[in-house]
Structures are given as structure tokens and as C-alpha cells.
Amino acid sequence: NAGVMQNPRHLVRRRGQEARLRCSPMKGHSHVYWYRQLPEEGLKFMVYLQKENIIDESGMPKERFSAEFPKEGPSILRIQQVVRGDSAAYFCASSSRDRVGEAFFGQGTRLTVV
Amino acid sequence: QQQVKQSPQSLIVQKGGISIINCAYENTAFDYFPWYQQFPGKGPALLIAIRPDVSEKKEGRFTISFNKSAKQFSLHIMDSQPGDSATYFCAAGSGGSQGNLIFGKGTKLSVKP
Predict the structure, then answer these.
(1) Using one digit for the tens of pLDDT, what is the confidence trace for A11-26?
(2) Is residue A29 within a helix (H) or strand (E), and if so which, with residue range?
């Protein structure tokens, strides 16, 4: 039973480019969460999605960031026009419908903006 | 209101000793308190979790103690081993539609042989 799969593991983007981070939840999980982790910091909640719905995006920056979880395929976190401050580890987590909040994390995507 | 405060920031324990990490929260709506273990370059792994209807939960060498009135909870690692050296995060969440977790800033544990 594969865990939460994230790709790519490492991503390097120049300032102004777009970054697309992908997350496939655990089998049977319909809830996806994205978190951001800065060095030596805890994880900060960004967005909570179910299939085709954004449930809570209170942690998402107002501009340049968007997320989706389509009916088919992985969840995508998109960062447009990246800046150096976007450099961080981005983690996706998933949970099942009957155990919302009991989240299992992927290995993360480490984004470096140069 | 939404913060989870974790201490200490770092902890050094001798092999075989007890590691204790503490967390405190403000929001009484929280009803789920997990602990995660993270190794360098890896994602957080769910270690153990507790809900407020019990005051203690034990799984192997790991125990969560929960004090609802004080709004505090702690992780105890008995017979600490060098392989336990990692960063530990407490978190808090509430069920229903919210789903997201609020994390503490983490405790870097080093177990000396």
C-alpha cells in the first residue's frame, strides 16, 4: 500500500518562473492538505482540499499560489512567478473521510528559487 | 488562539534515559493531538495521537500524557535509543470540516550512546 507520493522531490526554479508540485494521496484517502516548512521551523498549513473542492485555504498566500485536486489525477500546488522567499519544503498529507485530520505525510518537495 | 507552543527547542538525552517534550495549546476546540517524528530530508511520520477523552496513551516506548484542564500534553520516550534522534513535532486539530493541523515549532532530540 503506497504512501503519499509527491513529485518532484527537488525542484529548482529561477525567479519569475512557475513551480508545479504534485501529490497523490494514499489509496482510499479523499482529503489532501498542503503544508510549507521553512528551515528549522514547524509546518504551516496552507490549504485543505477534497476532490474538486477547496475546503479551507486560510493558509494560502493571497497571490501567486493556487491549489487543485481534480476528479482524476493528483493534487497540484502551483506557485506562479516564484520569488526567493518561496524556497521551502512543501509537504502534502492525506487522510480518509472517516478520520479527517489524521494525516499521513509524503516525503515533500524541496523548492529552491535561484 | 491558534498557536501550539512546544518546548524544549532541543534536547540531549543519554541512551536508556527518558525524553520528555511538552506542548501547550489555547484553543479549546482542539480535539485531536498527534505527535510526528521527522528525520532530516524526510516527511513527518505519525508517531502516536490522543483525543481528550483519555489522559494517557501508550504505544511501545512512546507515551502521551494529556491534561485537559491545563491545556497541555507531553510525549515521553522511555529507554531512549540513538535511533530516536530526530525532530519531534506536536500538533493539534479539530474534527469536522476543518481538518488542518496546527504544529509546534519542533524539538530536536539527540540521544547519545
Answers:
(1) 999 999 999 999 999 9
(2) none
Whether residue A69 lies within 8 A of chain B, CB to CB, comes out as no
pLDDT digits (tens, 9 = 90+) for B62-96: 999 999 999 999 999 999 999 999 999 999 988 65
Q: Do A48 and B100 touch (CB under 8 A)?
A: yes
CB contact A102 to B (< 8 Å): yes
**Residue B24 and residue B98: Cα distance in Å, rounded?**
20
Q: Tell me the C-alpha distance between B80 and A27, whole Å.
A: 33
C-alpha cell at B7: 518546548
Q: Are B35 and B29 in contact (CB under 8 A)?
A: no
Q: How far apart are CA A38 and CA A34, in angstroms?
A: 14
CA pair distance B5, B1, nearest whole angstrom: 11
Maximal CA-CA distance, chain B = 45
CB B90 within 8 A of CB B5: no
Yes or no: say if B110 and B10 are a contact pair by the CB < 8 Å rule: yes
Single-letter amino acid, residue A92: C
- DSSP class per residue in B50-63: E-TT-SEEEETTEE
Return the C-alpha cell found at A18: 512557475
